[in-house]
Specification:
Number of helices: 13
Radius of gyration: 27 Å
Largest sheet: 5 strands, parallel
Structural class: alpha/beta
Shape: elongated
Amino acid sequence: MDETTSGGGVDEVHVLWISEGLSCDGDTISITAATQPSIEDVVLGLIPGLPKVHLHNKVLSPSMGGGQGDFLEPFFKAARGELGAAYVLVIEGSIPNEQINGEGYWTSMGNDPATGEPITVNEWIDRLAPGAWGVVAAGTCATYGGIHAMAGNPTGCMGLADYLGWDFRSAGGLPIVNVPGCPVQPDNFMETLTWLLFQAAGKAPVIPLDDQLRPTWLFGKTVHEGCDRAGYYEQGDFAHDYNSPKCQVKIGCWGPVVNCNVPKRGWMNGIGGCPNVGGICIGCTMPGFPDKFMPFMDQPPGGTVSSTMIGAYGKLFRRLRAITNDTVNKEPKWRHNRPALTTGYAPRHLNR
């Protein structure tokens, strides 16, 4: 990416958020719980250094009270190149294949003023993505297709990068930025959006992404690496039901192979998160979700071999550690209230 596009120094950004992909709107709902930062802090300009932000989201937008025409006007202006400011396009929900829709359409947002016909989400993406400073896919449906794209679905739907191409670059020179999660973890999304806004203002380096276009600092480690239960795995001490605080691999947790930071970050204000509250990880941040993680609640493939191997090792070392634990759980013998000093202290003047 050349420097003119990576640090353009814009002072005003519109966030055009389309949630009419195949979706439950869960990602929009989720980000209202963000605190680091909150969506309100970003929109109200309470974060120093950010450009002025105008949010256009059908649930959160302040312009919704004015009717469809008022709400869609920024989208139409952006499509015509008349918005007058940079914009970030946020897509929520998986992208259907409109080439196999028969005589109808799969999903749409608003109507074309000229024809009165619905404008499909695919048409909006075609119109808006090329001119966007940045393009963000919010949630697993938008990033990789998610539940709607599982085997047997009738829509042929896909993630945004599958639709636009994995080599897509925005007007700002950026690839698509994927923030997966079902729904997206609220602070993960807001932190990513804030990075992009700082970058648009010329005050942050280019956002680092992995091969699946996820922010590396959020998805660079596995659930297992950040899980409070990981020590039990290393000792071969496994839960056999959901009431146990121990490692849940044997009851279906995919944490050792899933890229996600929820055990460390929590869910709302640092509290919650699947394994933290007794739930197993089912891999919802991964491109293979849900098909490659089913059936849920069963021990993952390879889990039997790995847990058996770690079980033998863990049982031995758990016993050895118990012995050491018992030893260090007792005070040294020289700590007493008897009329003798038994610490081993030998004053120099007594040795002369």
